[in-house]
Amino acid sequence: MAKKPRKGEDAEVEGEGAEAEAGSGGKKKKLILIGAVAGVLLIGGGAGAFFFLSGSDEAAEAEAAALAEAEAAVPPTFVDVPQMTVNLAPEPNEERPRFLRFTARLEVSDPVAATEIAPLMPRVEDAFQTYVRELRASDLHGSAGVYRLREELLRRVNIAVHPAEVDAVLFGEVVVQ
Fold first, then answer.
1. How far is it, in rounded angstroms, from Cα 118 to Cα 123?
2. Is 105 helix (H, G, I), strand (E, B) or coil?
3. Dihedral of CA 105/110/113/114: which sign?
4. Sheet holding 168-176, edge to edge
5. Share of residues in the chain with pLDDT > 90 (%)
6. What angle do CA 21, 27, 30 make, to 5 degrees?
7. Rounded CA separation 19/7 (Å)
8. What is the pTM of this model?
């Protein structure tokens, strides 16, 4: 048969149950509160990101359109580099000297920069020759070789004519003999 709890025991049992219920209820309230705060932050952050990013896209598109119009209005200026013939570095086990002859033009978006580059042409020629003399004929095979040559010459010409800026190096003729 079931034993009847005494008065003191009853109070203890009831007190423990009340504390357990109160503790779990407090934890539930905290979790609900934290969840609600996190939800509000996520919704607010998402809305803020939407408005921020949608506004910047329109501004970026407007800026790109204005830049395109400005570029279309002012055609690029070209500065001729004199024809150059340069000895190439010898290939291993090759006795015959090899040469590279090329003509190039420098594309400049600012006509004022073109007038600044003309007096600096000896620097440009020197930068080109010192680089090309270290190349081998095998370095210039195919379109990838010519592309690497163009990119390296562009980097070197921008160093030589700084603060003016050259947009591209365009080849008119490239002959390896």
1. 10
2. strand
3. positive
4. 77-87, 99-108, 168-176
5. 21
6. 140
7. 19
8. 0.56
